[in-house]
Design a protein that fits this description.
Chain lengths: 662, 286
């Protein structure tokens, strides 16, 4: 296969692990990135990476439990086989990263230390201080540099991916990209293209994401015919530090290490936080969710914090909304050892020492659960078939998507410390499948040159048109600001159909406006103006997927919350009536699942997305209500358990042939 | 600097921010100063100032200009992209808060590209030399491969606490900018020269010059890893050859400007001792 090459786009955890694995399998890789790969957004991940481990195993944990927590945390919106495969690989992924020299925190005896993260009751999370993403990224960056030095990997840093190239049969045979320094546009013939380009937080203006997380690469694949799934599921992280240019993440590990979220019980209490006695503090997460406490999943914590500030008027700052995240009861030495990195960020940007004063935090857009639709091939145990070229393949043959830009692993809500896992896992797992794909296809280097020249021509024309559009008069930076405001208002924590309808029509108009941008820089040397404007124009198709999905999904699930379509809570105090209410609640839950336990899958129709709901593969775990031991919901849990047991009995006594077809 | 409460700060805050930027249209072209003025808002950093400059694309005299080019990524001082010289000091522009800069000089903020790397355009510089140095010291663990072989070696808490700070190096280049022994290497492409040939020529030039504190520190990090130690000899060969540890003049500027407070001079001292041992070994093993 001497003439075969693979193009990997994006050098975060997913892209680097794919590159490294492909290099090990002897495949030459072109690695293309907007930034030197060591500076990719994975570097910002703080808290850690999950897997079952020797200690939790002896407490009753297993790979299956990790799988169950991930599905339950994601509100059952994932196809289950890929998630099962990931959970079963998790311990192996951490072992590998350990061998690559990641400086994981250690126990006194020298084992990898673990902490607890949201949505689980086990300490599954391995971590390297509070800069775990950085440490994992560096280890992979080092391995890729090793292969680069050996000549198997060629890096193209400061290059912008402009779109996949398809042959006449619709197979992806390479990509077009632009050098961000010389502005040269050229083709990269490849026998498979792997897109590992991360999330789309910049669509919301300010988020916890890095400046290059525009979603434009995924959008370019979408506009070339790849499907986009579950766009409406955008994770809003409960704890971030508000800022003018960026909302900086304050890791969940702060709560994993014992951090407590609270507000004064009295509204507008102006006393300094440390002088407010314990009895006058409202630890609202702990009171409402005694079982999980501060470590309820992110969507729930976010809604509770939002609600405390917006509806209950208990914000701790009169000028802006925020609550306390308090670490001051933990010793300085322990904080420095386990959370140093994030405490320094708070100190540097806020000028306050969080070891002495409770931090002030508020939710911020953080992660895209949705992304490019990808396929999988399941085996008889409900995991994946290793080496299948279908795994992680988009709806365009030969075009693969991994990491945050695929839609596959996190459903309606991602659990903390599962993203680093899904990125590295999908990157490693994809290697053998790509090798098999290449074997069964004609090498793209043997295709007629015209296929590539045509694609380059289209992009050159787009580029020239933008530079010469001096009379349009629109400013790309101002349009971006407005897009961010609209998206943040209408499609984050709480969503209403009238606002979404309004936002959708505004955003489609703005997409037109963005085509009339005039550039302040019309030169052909390091023109950041034109690169940004292209990214901005390509934000719109994804923004439309997000809004359309949110509009059409008339239910509440995970990060997608519509008060007008939420399940009512139980109101009766009389036990019999309450039980009856719980029965009705469970009926309504089943009915809603029949309608909406589906992926929303968009196809680009030239000027807008067409959305269809697709069934979800729940072959391993039947859906159940997601309550996390909420105070007052015990009856629902009890009724649901009785029903599940009755169903199981029915199934056991049913004639054999009917079981398989159910 | 005068200690003052937030209210006193409030009074001194001007409504406008004056910025002086050293611009350059491309490699080898003459640099020139340009003044910009943007509206003051609370909690700004240099990144948000540059964003405003890009959006208005006009100098303070009202002349239309191209937006100032600069590099940035995470905006939380962990990716290393946005390093530049601000009011004479090399640092990341994301963590350079306007209110703090005003405490020193409320009249003006001065932005310059790093001086030890070739300018690509304006504040964007080419730091490929820095990444090339990481190849030279083979900063990686030479594992057999990526199949499942169980966990890595047991590491003591003490060793982890020594290595983690070194491993936080984000390749920003502050230590190199501040180093008197680290000189700029800037080559122009010859007419008709291919990418490969130009890269080769640049790398040869880099290798004749000082490798810098960051790479020495990375060499020490990997020399102390139980498996990566197997390449210790190769790393010491680089460290003791031209542009290696002997080029260090012990000015100790590197450790003073490192934004991650990496104990670079400790690494350099370790490398110095290891170099002596390595030199003796080389003589007696001959």
């Amino acid at each position: 296969m001497a003439s075969n090459r693979v193009l990997v786009v994006g050098g975060g955890l997913a892209g680097l692990s794919a590159t490294m694995k492909l290099a090990e399998l002897g495949i030459p890789v072109d690695l293309l990135s907007l930034t030197p790969v060591k500076r990719s957004h994975s570097v910002c991940a703080q808290g850690g990476i999950n897997s079952v481990n020797d200690q939790t195993r002896q407490q009753g944990d297993s790979e299956w439990n990790h799988f169950d927590d991930t599905i339950y945390g994601g509100d059952f919106l994932q196809n289950q086989p890929p998630v099962k495969e990931m959970a079963y690989w998790a311990p192996k992924v951490i072992d590998l990263m350990d061998r690559l020299g990641v400086t994981f925190n250690r126990t006194p005896e020298g084992f990898i230390d673990r902490r607890r993260f949201g949505g689980t009751l086990y300490k599954r999370t391995a971590f390297a201080g509070a800069t775990t993403g950085q440490q994992l990224l560096y280890a992979l960056d080092e391995q890729v540099r090793r292969h680069e030095a050996a000549g198997l990997v060629k890096k193209y840093e400061f290059w912008d991916f402009l779109g996949p190239i398809l042959d006449d049969g619709g197979r992806c045979v390479g990509a077009v990209a632009q050098d961000m320094v010389s502005m040269q546009i050229r083709s990269f013939p490849a026998d498979a293209v792997v897109v590992a380009t991360g999330g789309c937080g910049l669509i919301y203006g300010r988020s916890t994401m890095s400046v290059f997380c525009t979603g434009s690469a995924a959008s370019r694949c979408f506009q070339a015919g790849a499907k986009y799934g579950n766009g409406e599921f955008i994770q809003v992280h409960p704890t971030a530090i508000p800022g003018a240019d960026k909302l900086r993440l304050m890791s969940e590990s702060a709560r994993g290490e014992g951090g407590r979220v609270w507000v004064p019980r009295k509204p507008n209490d102006t006393r300094p936080p440390k002088s407010i006695p314990e009895s006058e503090r409202y630890y609202f997460l702990e009171e409402r969710f005694p079982k999980y406490g501060n470590l309820v999943p992110r969507d729930i914590a976010t809604r509770e914090i939002f609600n405390i500030c917006v509806n209950e008027g208990l914000s701790v700052d009169p000028n802006r909304m925020c609550v306390y995240l308090d670490l001051t009861h933990i010793s300085r030495a322990e904080l420095d050892r386990k959370l140093g990195g994030i405490l320094e960020i708070y100190e540097k940007f806020q000028g306050v020492d969080p070891r002495e004063e409770p931090m002030k935090i508020f939710p911020a857009v953080h992660y895209s659960m949705g992304g490019l639709w990808v396929d999988y091939e399941a085996n008889s145990e409900g995991g994946l078939v290793p080496g299948s070229p279908r795994n992680q393949c988009t709806s365009i043959p030969g075009l693969y998507a991994i990491g945050e830009c695929d839609y596959q692993y996190h459903g309606a809500n991602r659990l903390g410390a599962n993203s680093l896992l899904s990125c590295i896992f999908s990157g490693l797992f994809i290697g053998p499948g790509i090798v098999n794909w290449i074997k069964s296809n004609k090498a793209s280097a043997d295709l007629p040159k015209s296929v590539f020249e045509r694609a380059v021509g289209v992009e050159e024309a787009r580029h020239k048109k933008l530079l010469s559009n001096t009379s349009g008069g629109e400013n790309p930076y101002l349009i971006h600001q407005e897009l961010g405001d609209i998206m943040t208002r209408s499609a984050t924590v709480v969503r209403y159909n009238d606002q979404l309808t309004d936002a959708y029509s505004k955003v489609t108009q703005m997409a037109e406006q963005a085509r009339r941008c005039s550039l302040a820089d019309t030169g052909n040397w390091t023109n950041q103006n034109v690169i940004f404007t292209k990214a901005l124009q390509d934000m719109f198709p994804v923004a439309e997927c997000i809004l359309k999905g949110a509009l059409m999904r008339d239910e509440s699930r995970g990060a997608h919350y519509k008060p007008d379509f939420s399940m009512p809570s139980l109101t009766s105090t009389d036990p019999t009536a309450r039980h009856r209410e719980a029965e009705q609640w469970c009926d309504a839950f089943d009915e809603n699942n029949r309608k909406f336990l589906k992926s929303s899958v968009c196809t680009w129709k030239g000027n807008e997305p067409d959305l269809k709901f697709e069934d979800i593969d729940t072959r391993l775990l039947p859906p159940r209500p997601r309550l996390y031991g909420l105070v007052g919901a015990e009856v629902i849990e009890q009724v649901w358990k009785e029903r599940a047991e009755a169903k199981a009995r029915e199934k056991a006594s049913a004639p054999k042939e009917l079981v398989g077809s159910a | 600097m005068i200690a003052s409460g937030p209210e006193a700060d409030q009074k001194r805050r001007p409504s406008k921010i004056n910025v002086r930027v050293l611009r350059q249209d491309g490699p080898g072209l003459p640099p020139y100063w340009e003044r910009h003025q943007v509206d003051y808002e609370p909690d700004m950093n240099v990144i948000s100032v540059l964003q405003k400059i890009a959006a208005q694309a006009k100098t303070s005299e009202g002349k239309s200009v191209t937006p100032v080019a600069w590099d940035c990524g995470c905006l939380e001082e962990v990716c290393g992209s946005c390093t530049m010289v601000i009011n004479g000091r090399v640092r990341q522009s994301c963590s350079a808060l306007v209110d703090r800069l005003f405490e020193d000089n409320p009249e003006e903020i001065e932005l310059q590209p790093m001086t030890k790397f070739p300018v690509v355009r304006d504040l964007v510089i080419d730091r490929s030399r820095l990444f090339h140095s990481l190849k030279r010291v083979q900063a990686w663990v030479p594992v057999d491969g990526y199949y499942d072989m169980g966990a890595g070696p047991r590491i003591s808490r003490e060793a982890q606490e020594q290595n983690y700070p070194l491993s936080q190096c984000m390749s920003c280049g502050c230590c190199l900018e501040a180093c008197p022994q680290f000189n700029k290497v800037e080559l122009q492409r010859n007419p008709g020269e291919s990418d490969e040939d130009f890269t080769k020529r640049k790398e040869a030039a880099y290798e004749s010059e000082f490798i810098g504190a960051h790479a020495i520190s990375q060499a020490m990090l990997f020399n102390s890893h139980p498996v990566a130690k197997s390449l210790e000899k190769e790393r010491m060969e680089t460290i003791t050859s031209t542009g290696g540890i002997q080029a260090c003049g012990n000015a100790q500027n590197c450790v003073a400007v490192c934004p991650k407070e990496i104990p670079l001079t400790t690494s350099i001292a370790r490398a110095g001792r290891a170099a002596t041992v390595y030199a003796f070994k080389k003589i007696f093993d001959r």
